[in-house]
């Protein structure tokens, strides 16, 4: 059986469209499937719509979070509740073409355990595109494989689901974890459609936070960067010291009060920045140690 997980946050107009599109698609291709809607604490009637769909179609289920926990949490809640032999994640706004799930499913039947959806285009403003591009460049370096244009649109085997669910960490990054888990994978290109109803949930501040969280949860490189930066400053100091000494021996007085102030500012600034980076990691450790759940489910349609 194929489980299709659909995270939905303020998507009241899209829930029924998604449920109908996916159900008829699965029926016409004779694939046994279940659809799991995860309402990520929406403020509109998303959950009511999900309940309606659960009544109308017997392969549709749904649950609702007590508040907004984020898409990542919604995906994991879906995975945890999935009963299928494989699971696909689909956006509720139908920006990911549902027909591609059939192709993904065929690839899975051929023996692939992870089928990654790869975007051939990128929607959004120029700013968003630039931001996304640089974020994926950095992430690709850290994860060790090309993450350019990847998305949350993928199909994973039961083995991969169980592996991901067994990870103890709270801060997960689904998009990179499927690579990281290292199962037999393949790619499938798809074109991102424009959003029809509602609007994107991302803005620059949310994206920045998402980027920082994911980079720090995947790599400790910023911590090492601090050491390198400190070493560079030290070298600089040595050169300056030697120069001053030579000047002194030649009978010139050391001068340049401005230089002193600038150096003080530079060093003060870099120390604070370094402390900030370390602080960020400590905060992450603190969050992990607290061991709070990724999400809290308040309602389920089948209970
Ligand atoms: N989403 C979610 N929780 C959030 C934000 C988004 O579950 O806090 C869902 C949203 O309902 C949609 C998917 O994640 O199904 C992708 O969101 P969106 O379309 O806003 O992102 P974009 O396509 O612009 O990257
Ligand atoms: Mg979208």
Please describe the structure with a list of short key phrases separated by commas or semicolons.
303 residues; alpha/beta; 8-stranded mixed sheet; binds uridine-5'-diphosphate; binds magnesium ion
- Over all CA atoms, what is the radius of gyration? 25 Å
Bound molecules: uridine-5'-diphosphate, magnesium ion
Distance between the termini: 22 Å
Main-sheet strand order equals 7-5-6-4-1-2-3-8
Q: Which sheet architecture does the biggest sheet show?
A: 8 strands, mixed
Q: Give me the secondary-structure category.
A: alpha/beta
Broad shape? elongated
User: Helical percent range?
Assistant: 40-55%
What low-confidence regions span 5 or more consecutive residues with pLDDT below 50?
none
Q: Tally the helices.
A: 10
- What integer is the average pLDDT? 86
Order of helices and strands: EHEHEHEHEHEHHEHHHE
Number of strands: 8
Task: Tell me the β content.
Answer: 15-25%
Description of the molecule:
The chain is α/β, with parallel strands linked by helices and 303 residues long. It has helices at residues 12-28, 46-56, 71-81, 99-109, 126-143, 158-165, 174-180, 204-218, 221-249, 257-290; strands at 2-8, 33-39, 60-65, 86-89, 114-119, 150-157, 185-190, 297-300. Helix 1 runs parallel beside helix 2 and helix 5 packs parallel to helix 8. It starts with a strand and ends with a strand. The model has no long low-confidence stretch (mean pLDDT 86). The structure holds uridine-5'-diphosphate and magnesium ion. Magnesium ion binds at residues 91, 93, 95, 195, 200. Magnesium ion binds next to loops.
